[in-house]
Every structure is written in C-alpha cells, then in structure tokens.
Amino acid sequence: MTTTPAPAGVLRTAYQKAVADYWNNEKDPVNLRLGDVDGLYHHHYGIGDYDPSVLEGPQETRDERIIAELHRLESAQADVLLDHLGPIAPGRRLLDAGCGRGGTSIMANARFGCQVDGISISQSQVDFAGGQAAKRGVDDKVRYHFANMLDTGFPTGAFQGIWNNESTMYVDLFELFAEHARQLAYGGRYVTITGCYNDVTGGRSKAVSRIDEHYTCNIHPRSAYFKAMAANGLVPINVVDLTAATIPYWELRAQSSLATGVEDPFLTAYREGSFHYLLIAADRV
C-alpha cells in the first residue's frame, strides 16, 4: 500500500490518513463491476427485493444477471435517499459528504438540475468521480473536491441539502453535524443512510466488530446519531428502518462472484438485531 502526501490540513489524524490510504488503493470489483453496468459508481449497499429470475437461466450469464440486479438495488437505495431531501430548486446547491466514486451526486444533479459538490478524503476517488462527471457532460454542475467533511472550507449556509450515504462511521458525529449545521441554510435538509449498532443489545456484537475491521471504520450506536443531531440544531423529520429492506441485497450478493466474505457478518448482525440500517432525515433549525 502506497501513501501519497496530502495537502496540509485535509488529513488531520493518523486514522484519517489510514482511511484515505485504504480508499486510494481500493479497487474492489463489487464497487467497480456494479458501476460498469451504467456508469453510476456507488459505494453503498442496496434495498428492496431482488428479482429471483436472475438466479435462473443460462449458467454462463448468471453472474452478469446478479451484478445488474445488485446495481439496480443500490441505485434504488440512492433514490430513496434523494426522495427524502424534498423539493430542491435548480438554483440550489447540494453537498454529497463522503461521495465515494460519485454516483449519488450525478443522480442528484439529474433529478434536481442543481449544483452538487461531492467531497472525499480519497484523492483517487475524487479524480475518478470527476472523470465520470466529465464523461456525462455535467462537470459544470457536479464537482468533486479533495476535502475533509469535518472542515470543508465551504461557506456558511451555502447548501439547501447535505447527505452522508454510509460514510458517517468514519468520523465523530458531533463534529460532523456541527459542520453540516454550519453549512446548511436555515430550513435546509440533512439526510443520512447508515448502519448503526443497536443500543438495546449492548455494545458492538461480534458480527458488527467484524464489519468495523473489514472497512477500517467505527460503527456508532443508534442513539449517538440523535444526540449529536439534537446538539447541533438538526431536528429529525423522518426516521425509516431499512434493515429488512436491505437483507435481500446481502442474500443476493452472497451468491455472486463478487462476495468478499463480509456478507455473513452483515446478514448475521441484521438478523440477530444487533445492527440496524437506518435512514434519518433532519431539518436545520
């Protein structure tokens, strides 16, 4: 694994440098092959029931059918997140915090017609995402930045909407929501979809700890999200438990050539109730 020196101030801790190194060097087929289906490259999971017919038919094309279906489910997840941003006028501005390879940013621009800024602490992700926006001819409105979501440098009140799609487990929530609240216009909307461990069952289960280890992340308890939002003027308007809706994605992924071994911990944690997949939408007040 190689390390590329970052501009001063973006990567502030040894942990952030380690996370950036991980994503700079990540070339997991489960992210790239799914994105190759239609050029929307995501770094999140899927929701909804899969079409069982993809498991039938000719064996030689079975994996292609599964990959296309997994990608449909992950794009459906992004659509649900964008649904919860509410109406966004074309003149407004959105922030994709922890944008990965940029798929959700491009979907947001296509839906709302507005400017979207995506940020990542992985320079390779930023470069890749920027290339995809240029290929689609939307790089005048969809821009990606090498930046830290805890201290972006963007102006106060600049955004009508901000989201984190499975990226909050890499940062302190109180710091994150303080920065998001600063950047959101009054009445602006914040949305996150995230995995969080269940406070009711105690600390991290063995399965949740395995997920942490796999992704070099630090999964938060469910209660921490609401405490950190309350401390920073973010008032939840919708909370949706997507746990049951994401299990089919993991069941299908476990049957694909792209399985990484983390499928079993996810399925175990969801089924035993130690891990939840939540959507939280909150207004800036």
TrEMBL record:
Q: What terms describe the molecular function in GO for this protein?
A: magnesium ion binding; S-adenosyl-L-methionine binding; S-adenosylmethionine-dependent methyltransferase activity
The chain positions of domain Methyltransferase read 95-188
Enzyme class comes to transferase
Stored SUPFAM superfamilies: S-adenosyl-L-methionine-dependent methyltransferases (SSF53335)
Might you give the EC number(s) for this enzyme? 2.1.1.255
Kindly give the CDD domains that the UniProt entry links to this protein.
Answer: AdoMet_MTases
- Pfam families named in the record: Methyltransf_25
| GO BP, one annotated term | methylation
Sorted alphabetically, the keyword list is:
Methyltransferase, Transferase
Superkingdom of the organism of origin: Bacteria
Q: What is this protein called?
A: Geranyl diphosphate 2-C-methyltransferase
Which source organism does the UniProt entry give? Streptomyces olivoverticillatus
User: What lineage is this protein's organism placed in?
Assistant: Bacteria, Bacillati, Actinomycetota, Actinomycetes, Kitasatosporales
